[in-house]
Amino acid sequence: MNTTATASTAAAAYWEPLWAAGCRYRQLEDTENQLLGDHLGPGRARPALDIGCGDGALARRLAQLGYRTTGIDCSPSAIALAAAKAPGPGRVPLWQCMDITTDDLGTLPEPAYAVITCRLVYRWIDDKPTFLDRVRRLLAPGGIFWVVTEIAGRRPATDPLQDLSITPAQAELLTAGWSAVHTADLDVLRCYALRP
Q1: Which of 17, 45, 68, 98 could form a disulfide with 103, with the two C-beta atoms 3.0–4.6 Å apart?
Q2: Considering only CA atoms, which of 3, 94, 4 is closest in space to residue 50?
Q3: Using alpha carbons only, what angle is made at residue 91 by residues 149 and 181, rounded to the nearest 5 degrees?
Q4: Residue 90 confidence (pLDDT)
Q5: d(CA 96, CA 99)
Q6: Residues 64, 65, 68, 69, CA torsion sign
Q7: What residues have CB less than 8 Å from 100, skipping those under 6 apart?
Q8: Among the listed residues 28, 7, 27, the one whose alpha carbon sits nearest the alpha carbon of residue 16
Q9: What is the pLDDT of residue 168?
Q10: pLDDT of residue 7
Q11: Spatial CB neighbours of 186, under 8 Å, sequence gap ≥ 6
């Protein structure tokens, strides 16, 4: 297990108290795991990066698929939680505390990644164009950027969680400029497989 703590940003100031207080978020389900495997395929020891890894569930799933996985999160408590969980079958992920929007990308263990995942994180990114540029710089030729996010209009107007979705304009920004865009829907979520 490898953990590095460096993040000290506004994002960390928001997320750290939540993770430290024991907040937990939507867990991976079988259907989402199946979609992930279908779209990403076997890892064959290629590098993968999970942005906003939280408790590490998605990073561990990537490792089970055979990827050499690094999970990053801006919250030291989330990284500690991810590192403390049993890795399961497959390679043991590396854990690194960093803010993908502001920290030096050169501190990552790989210069490029065959797969980059971003589950339930894109909505929280303030400067989406800069974030997407950073992802594109890290994605290896032929790689896949896997994004899972809520879509506007899927929850009733009275649902207190309705603001967790992205707008149609934010979805359009996310999908612009990729050579291939594949989507799959899961209740309130949409999964995007984006290729350069």
Answers
A1: 98
A2: 94
A3: 30
A4: 72
A5: 10
A6: negative
A7: 51, 52, 72, 74, 131, 134
A8: 7
A9: 94
A10: 46
A11: 29, 31, 32, 35, 148
Identity of residue 129: P
pLDDT along the chain (196 residues), means of 10: 52 85 86 96 97 96 96 96 84 94 96 97 94 98 97 79 85 97 94 97
What pTM, to 2 d.p., does this model score? 0.91
- Residue 175 is given by DSSP the state H
Give the DSSP H/E element, type plus range, for residue 169. Answer: helix 168-175
Give the model's pLDDT for residue 15.
Answer: 86
How many CA within 13 A on the CB side of residue 66?
8
The first and second tokens of residue 100, run together, are 């993908």
The residue among 101, 61, 50 whose CA lies nearest residue 85 is 61
